[in-house]
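Q: Structure tokens for this one, please.
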Amino acid sequence: MQTGLVFQYFRNKQILDFIKRRFAIDNNWTNGNCYWAARILAARFKLKIYYLPIQGHFVCGDHHKFYDANGIYQGTETPILAETIQSQDPLWWSHLMRDCRD
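A: Here is the predicted structure, written as tokens:
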């Protein structure tokens, strides 16, 4: 059990260090480019992409801890797995991709 906690600590530190280096404060990662920030983090750390429909914001995570270009997501809204939206509501997904990605 303790080994798992140590692994989680170092993985979390790696992700946060990457965010600090990769996502400069003067960039617009959380206002219109959050999908791309989530894609970068998901690819680099093998995380899943999630969507926050009330905030209209993409994050990524492992179902327990979520990240965006600012670091650990601290909000109270429960993220929805992007794959779930894509498979259960393709029209909504196409609108998200049109409005957030393109």
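A few notes: The chain has four helices and five strands. The first helix runs from residue 2 to 22.
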